[in-house]
Amino acid sequence: MYRFIRSGLFDTMQVCYNLIFQHPYETSRPFGTLYEAEKAGLGILTMRGPTSGTFQRWIQAVNPANTFDYTPALIQFVLSNPLVDVALVGMRTPEIVRANAAIVADLDGRIDIAAVQERYV
User: Fold this and answer.
1) pTM of the complete model
2) What's the start-to-end Cα distance of the chain, in Å?
3) DSSP structure class, residue 30
4) DSSP state of 27
5) Which SS3 state, helix, strand or coil, does residue 21 take?
6) I need a labelling partner for 57 at 20 to 30 A (CA). Which of 6, 11, 44, 75 fits?
7) Phi then psi dihedrals of residue 91, to 5 deg
8) pLDDT number for residue 114
9) Alpha-carbon torsion 70, 71, 76, 81, what sign?
10) Contact of 41 with 50, CB cutoff 8 Å
11) Rounded to an integer, what distance in angstroms lies between the CA atom of residue 72 and that of residue 104?
12) Which of 16, 15, 11, 85 is nearest to 41 (CA)?
């Protein structure tokens, strides 16, 4: 990734980044491909913000009765990153499009990722 970023041949970078897979943006060092892409002036697109269902399956494994929808919080986590320009998420129905638009509009759902990592990492 770093070689591609430094090549100067690209305008944007698409990278997996979410609550589970946070290593592209480590605030305690600061280190990661998101920082390098930002320094190079690349647009940053993230994929798998809702973890492709992995987080939800983990929760279901330890609490089979759980029916809470974590998708909004998982998307908000990605949107809270100040380096992310676009969060790519799947939208198969008009209802999901409307729900995702509402998540984007809900600025109160954003968190201070650096403060969270400082406290818990």
Assistant:
1) 0.89
2) 24
3) T
4) T
5) coil
6) 44
7) -145, 100
8) 87
9) positive
10) no
11) 9
12) 11
Query: What pLDDT score does 26 carry?
Result: 85
**Is 5 within 8 Å of 13 (Cβ atoms)?**
yes
Residue 49: which of 11, 75, 85 has the closest Cα? 75
d(C-alpha 84, C-alpha 9), whole Å: 20
pLDDT band at 93 (very low <50, low <70, confident <90, very high): very high
Residue with tokens 């060092």: 29
Separation CA 13–CA 33 (nearest Å): 9
pLDDT digits (tens, 9 = 90+) for 62-79: 999 998 999 999 999 999
CA distance 29 to 26: 6
pLDDT digits (tens, 9 = 90+) for 18-66: 999 998 998 888 889 999 999 999 999 999 999 888 999 999 999 999 9
DSSP state letters, 41-100:
T-EEEEE-TTGGGHHHHHHHHH-TT-----HHHHHHHHHT-TT-SEE-----SHHHHHHH
Which residues, in sequence order, are bridge partners of residue 104? none
Buried b (16+ CB within 10 A) or exposed e, 28-37: eeeebbbbbb
Q: What confidence score (pLDDT) does residue 117 get?
A: 82
